[in-house]
Amino acid sequence: MHVESGPAPVRSRPGPADPRPRWYRLSWALPWLLFQFFPVADLVTTDRPPAVRLAAGAGLVVFTAVYLDVFRRAFGGGGGGSGDRGPVLGRLAVVAGLGLVLAATMGPPWAGLLIYVSAAAAAALPQRWVWPAVLAAAAVCAAVVTLGGDGGPLILPVMCLLTAFALRGTRHLVSVNAELVEARDELARSAVAEERLRFARDLHDLLGHSLSLIALKSELAGRLAERDPARARAEMADVEAAARRALAEVREAVSGYRQVGLALALAEARAALSAAGVGLWAPSAVPDLPGPVDAVLGWVVREATTNTLRHSGARTLTVGLSRSGEDLVLTVTDDGRGPGGPPGAGLTGLAERLRGFGGRLEHGPAPGGGFRLAARLPAADRVGAR
């Protein structure tokens, strides 16, 4: 979002109409109407021809109405679009012209109208024009008070400057608040998009593994149906169990409570690989790990198992867990040909998970042939404290 340096913000794209009531937008201008006590009192108490009184009163009414409209537009009227700049400047010219004429012709009691001119200039003009206009209004106010010859209120020129400072600060706060509101909305949209991406990644990891296992066991059961019905029934029982487990995991993912640990992932991998005739070498016991670390390492094992079943043609999968300096390293190596080609969505999702904990994912050909996947995380005790 871009906001012009002037008082009336100009957004990079049109926004909705300002929902605030008109009285709220005018509230910035209403306190300054107290200074009209002096010209009104002078209009009532000073003996002047009726025509002069009528003209001055009419000019004061028009001055006040246009002044309030300047503030209504400058502080959000019309949706804050750039199309309001022309009408605001035109009305500001009317305010300035009437203020100068009334102050110069009616004398020092009317010099306070130049305070309104300063306030309107500070609220509506771009930054580069504000202070020349304010200084000019203060100079005219000082001249009217001084040339009046009756020792008028010399505080009025100072009030022109102070009022401009106050309105510039108010205008800045309104613009910053508009930026903060838009930034908050943008952050909310980004959070929603990030959550959608996370949920899609979780579903890919969950269903990719489970459906691969179901497809493999179903194929095996089909081959065994005639020559070994008992074994086929056992495989189909595993298919049913895997389907139910996948359904439960998807429900937990939707509820936001699903977590796949390393030990569970190794047990699932052993069952899936055994059905495919692939041997698994893995630690017999998994050390206690912080919940987030345990979950992310479980995802690494699941993804590696899925890739082995789908792509590698391996006969053996080896899982190792060790420390390297201050890092905790989980390696998964097979003796097949590997997935080949660029990393898929699964490996990309794993890399994103690990980066969230300050870790990284390494993958590529294994030294003795096959494919190697390594997940490096900061030491478990430090990760758990994150």
Automatic annotation (TrEMBL):
Q: What keywords are annotated for this sequence in UniProt?
A: Kinase, Membrane, Transferase, Transmembrane, Transmembrane helix, Two-component regulatory system
Q: Which residues cross the membrane?
A: 23-44, 51-68, 88-117, 129-148
Kindly list the organism's lineage: Bacteria, Bacillati, Actinomycetota, Actinomycetes, Geodermatophilales
Domain of life, per lineage? Bacteria
Q: Which residues form the Signal transduction histidine kinase subgroup 3 dimerisation and phosphoacceptor domain?
A: 195-261
What is a single cellular component term in the Gene Ontology annotation? membrane
> Could you tell me which Gene3D superfamilies the record lists for this protein?
1.20.5.1930, Histidine kinase-like ATPase, C-terminal domain
User: What is a GO molecular function of this protein?
Assistant: phosphorelay sensor kinase activity
Q: What is this protein called?
A: Two-component system, NarL family, sensor histidine kinase DesK
Q: Name one Pfam family in it.
A: HisKA_3
